[in-house]
Amino acid sequence: MQPNYIIMFHRNIKLILTGLLFATAVWQFTESNIGNGIFLILVSLLPVFLYFKNEFILMAFLKLRKQDFVGAKSWLDKITNPETALVRKQQGYYNYLNGIMLSQTNLIQAEKYFKKAIELGLNMDMDLAVAKLNLAGVALSRRRKLEATNLINEVKKLDKQGMLKDQINLMREQMKKI
Known about the structure:
Layout: H1 11-30, H2 34-52, H3 55-65, H4 69-77, H5 82-85, H6 88-102, H7 107-120, H8 125-141, H9 145-158, H10 165-177
Helix pairs in contact: 1-2, 3-4, 4-6, 6-7, 7-8, 8-9, 8-10, 9-10
């Protein structure tokens, strides 16, 4: 069961917190408390990390690795206003994760989330390839063969390690049947 007292700090509050911790570390250095200063500098790195990697999105990724879609959805639902609370890339991953979860049940809504994730940008080529592969699957289910072919070609370029090779071949076989 998830505790109800978990809150998400706004991204600007994280930067202010970092500045305050760093200023306190400098003050500790001037007071000859070197150990405290070093500790506070290390602690000040945590809000910077969480500025670029949202804590709820990280928890949702961990739940997805365990195939716990309900748990991942509950972590994503804790983000109340993603447009203001998240930076652009985090918004992309927010939409990417929602698209992955909805692709199990509602392809029309999942397509919207994947398109928005691609528009906002994803850091890793593999995530972009998975999003485009899912969009190709949606296009294929709607009998848009040209769009699916273009998306699969983009996926093939993005998949440098060949991890999606089997899925690409499966989609191409399904395209032949249409």
